[in-house]
């Protein structure tokens, strides 16, 4: 069992909840990708209000995993002074949404924590493009464009390089889908599926998220020859934008109504549904 404590109160006991087995595995992968985002329990991570999370590995299996990473069973993550842990902090915060917290109205408490996380680092658009070793072709889309699967896989399937035939939605595989069409909400749902904003040395897929404000989201994936490719809805996967030009920069290509560029994500061992 992994217990998470939102360190935010001064007089009352902090809200606490347990991660599911899947959430605990996802957290361990995030820690393995960047152990430096963890701090000792006694570290100074803020004053009044949000001070990050206290995370405890309380079962033998998880504690052993952390020990192999050189970590103690109780650590701090996030806080006002640790912007590099912003994405992992948001991941932990969203695990609280489905937990039973001993609060009359947890909404304002969680909102205050999320506002501080966002203020510590503007997560939208500051993440790094990783150097992947998992590039796929930028010209041969037969895997995606056959009649048996083209209508049933969308841009998120293509970005994830997983043909599920379920018209996959960010967060659905993790049991917590997005609830609004904006960068933070759709991006957080993708993080729950296993996407990261930290680079790894193995099996990287570079993707990026854009938004048609209030209506829809769309994903692009980096392929060979420095071209970005995508699959708009039920239509064919392709390597060109709305002007018919090869996509070398998803931030500046013709994206039609998808005018908000949210940022880049790095994928590995994903599960989408």
What does this molecule look like?
- This protein has 273 residues and is an alpha+beta fold.
- Helix content is 25%, strand content 16%.
- The chain is built from seven helices and nine strands.
- The chain has a five-stranded antiparallel β-sheet.
- 38% of the residues are buried.
Uncertain runs: 122-127
Shape: elongated
How many E strands? Answer: 9
Strand content: 15-25%
Number of helices: 7
Q: Radius of gyration, Cα only, in angstroms? A: 19 Å
Counted up, domains total: 2
First-last Cα distance: 25 Å
* Order of strands across the main sheet: 2-1-4-5-3
How do the SSEs run, as a string of H and E? Answer: EEHEEHEHHHHHEEEE
Main pleated sheet: 5 strands, antiparallel
Give descriptors for this structure:
5-stranded antiparallel β-sheet; 273 residues; 4-stranded antiparallel β-sheet; alpha+beta; 25% helix; 2 domains
In brief, what are we looking at here?
The chain is an alpha+beta fold and 273 residues long. 25% of the residues lie in helices and 16% in strands.
Topology:
Blueprint: E1 2-6, E2 16-18, H1 21-33, E3 38-39, E4 53-57, H2 60-68, E5 74-77, H3 86-95, H4 106-120, H5 142-145, H6 155-160, H7 183-193, E6 205-212, E7 216-222, E8 228-229, E9 260-267
Antiparallel strand pairs: 1-2, 1-4, 3-5, 4-5, 6-7, 6-9, 7-8
Helix pairs in contact: 3-4
């Amino acid at each position: 069992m992994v217990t998470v404590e939102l360190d935010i109160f001064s007089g009352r006991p902090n809200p606490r909840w347990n991660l599911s087995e899947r959430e605990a595995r996802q957290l361990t992968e995030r820690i393995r990708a960047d152990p430096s985002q963890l701090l000792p329990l006694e570290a100074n991570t803020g004053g009044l209000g949000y001070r990050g999370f206290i995370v405890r590995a309380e079962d033998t299996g998880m504690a052993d995993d952390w020990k192999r990473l050189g970590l103690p069973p109780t650590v701090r993550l996030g806080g006002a002074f640790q912007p590099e842990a912003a994405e992992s902090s948001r991941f932990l915060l969203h695990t609280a949404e489905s937990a039973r917290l001993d609060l009359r109205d947890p909404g304002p408490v969680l909102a205050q924590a999320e506002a501080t996380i966002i203020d510590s680092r503007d997560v939208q658009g500051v993440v790094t493009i990783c150097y992947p070793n998992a590039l796929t072709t930028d010209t041969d889309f037969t895997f995606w464009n056959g009649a048996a699967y083209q209508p049933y896989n969308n841009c998120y399937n293509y970005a994830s390089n997983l043909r599920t035939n379920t018209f996959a939605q960010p967060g659905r595989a993790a049991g917590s889908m997005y609830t609004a069409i904006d960068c933070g909400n759709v991006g957080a749902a993708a993080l729950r599926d296993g996407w990261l904003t930290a680079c790894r040395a193995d099996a990287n897929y570079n993707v990026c998220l854009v938004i048609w404000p209030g209506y829809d989201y769309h994903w692009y994936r980096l392929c060979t020859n420095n071209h970005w490719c995508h699959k708009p809805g039920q239509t064919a996967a392709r390597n060109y934008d709305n002007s018919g030009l090869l996509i070398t920069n998803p931030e500046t290509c013709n994206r039609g109504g998808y005018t908000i560029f949210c940022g880049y994500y790095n994928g590995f061992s994903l599960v989408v549904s």
